[in-house]
Amino acid sequence: METGEEFGPWLARQLRLADMTQTELAQAVEVTRAAVSAWITGRAAPRPETIERIARALNTDLATVHTRTTDTQAGLPVTWYHRPGYPDGGRDGGNAAAFAFDADVQVLARETCQNSLDERLTENGRPVRVRYTIHELTGEKLEAFRKAILWDELHPHYMAVSEAASHQKVGRVVDAGVRDMFEKGRLVLLRIDDYNASGLTGDDYDDGKFAAVVRRQLESLKSGRDAGGSYGLGKATLWATSALGMVLINSTLSVPHEGRTERRVIGRLELPWRSVGDSAYAGPAWLGRPDPDRPGAEVVRSWWADEETVESLYLTRDSDDPGTSFLIVGAHDVASLDQGGSSPDTDDEDGEEDDGTRDIEVMHRRLVEALGRNFWAAMTGGGGRLPLLETSVRTLRNGEVVIEEQKVDPTDEQPSRTRALRAFYDGTTVDRLTEAGQVALRTVPLRLPLSGGRRGTLGTHPAVLLVTSAEDRDGVPNQVHSLRGNRMTIKKSGVAGLPLGVNAFQAVLLAGHAAGESAPFADEAEEFLRAAEPPEHDSWGQTEELTLRWSHTAHHRIKRLTTEVNAAVKELVSRPKRSGGEGGAKLRKALTVPRKTGPRRGSGAVLPELDGLDASIGASGEWEITAEVKLPRGDELPAMTPVVLLDVRSGSRPKLDWAELVAVDGCEVQDGALRFTPGARRAVFRGSTDVSSHPVRTALTRLVLELRAGKGE
To answer: Is 286 within 8 Å of 266 (Cβ atoms)?
Structure first.
């Protein structure tokens, strides 16, 4: 017997697919039923001449029985199974998980590439390779594809959704997608292939990666300890990006299932509740082979497709490396309109108005931008380390190249940050920036809390801060990009209160395993920061998981980390003070703020006064405030207490409590009061309010900050 699934289990499944009993097969191949039973249980194997008769009985070729890498075509054909409506009459207007994300190819790139990174096979040390293919179909190619996905079976369901489109959002999106395909004669496919990844392993229904992606919602079964995803929501971006709600899947498995690994195929359709004929359907549907082990063989399961089938579905993979191909059918990019991707007045070739959401060249550009912006660190190697990730984008029309495959190069997309990370890997960082192109390194403490609401600190994790000069191609200057083990950019933030005249810079914060596998408390920091990320994985702050596993104040540890990072950045980029020469005098004169008449104490001394204020609302509803104080000349200035109040139309202003008050420059905080550095002419402090002291929701209020002498009574 040759390669493939074991003969016994394979034969048992073919009998179920063909609705044939062991006795009927025994009669067809002229053996006893006991002989067939022995084949199925593995106690015996059929002779070569018997195998020929088995192939004829199953209506297949001899090679299929010998190799057993696919099912025979006998019996139940591939079809769509639509989940029946709920017996209690309940209705779903679509998959709620899909509403967590916009129909945005840049969001899609972030979520899908993160998933591929999480599933990278680490044993061989190679990066995971992810390729995005945009493919527009028209004419005969489109018609052939509709036939391959059994459009005639789906048409009544789409018509039912279109008829009810005015009543709910998903129906309107689907209706627009169907009209675009037929009225304009085009369909955009967007395929995401990853290689050197685990693939969708596991059973069709039991716990495993296949079931988590194809059968379930809000379930995450990631492989790596550095995994980015934890909510099980990222896969919803695949269906959210499809105007038809359809995604087809072809997976090459890293671990065999049913004795094989290649061309495990299934499709999933996400539609709202609908009524077709006399039957009601709950929403989702699956393309697969009816499962003979399920009652009535109505439910479908994945099937082992042949090469011709995967080619007709545009799911052919380039190699036998493990991984998965997701084909988004009817891809659209609504967010591109908000970002100037296309003009709504643009006409297509037939002179009809085109909303631009299916502009394949704009999609290509936005995918490259998103991959470079979010995964530059994962694509950067150095010091003997290979990158974790390689990505590329290509665009086709009816199989012909529109834009050649473009490999995303992190040095093109993020030159300064890439330089900083490579210097860290190569061990060429410096303590202080003295020349252009240098990379300065500081460690900043992340004090990890004890779990379970206990007071105290588990330990201090030294996160790594890298600072270097900025280049024009980096985008917005003076930014800190924060990341952890999977090296996807999580948090992007500016540095408030920078001194005047600093050179433009870029900074990178490496935390968790990104700071080094041997960094103290790297595992604990990785776990803590992962819990502090929302479903979008674009910040670190208060989350429900952080509150449940640690405490409601655990996010203050992250705020303190941010304060430490900003202080370290400012210390690295600040220029040394110059003596009072002519150039300095001219600069001070040009930047002089008109003097205000400040309040005076009884002695006639001028008090420090607020000279600048920057405030925003944080993730937990707190006010986050950065303020600058102008200091009068004098050796001993009185202590001043910052007091934050809510502005009201009448009556006294409610006073808010500080959750955190931190000195940044020219001062220190003692017992809630600011004490100023002798000789300093300016001071900067930062604070955040205690949400529990807010009488109303922050978004409904206005802020007043006062600087009061003494203890602020």
So the answer is: yes
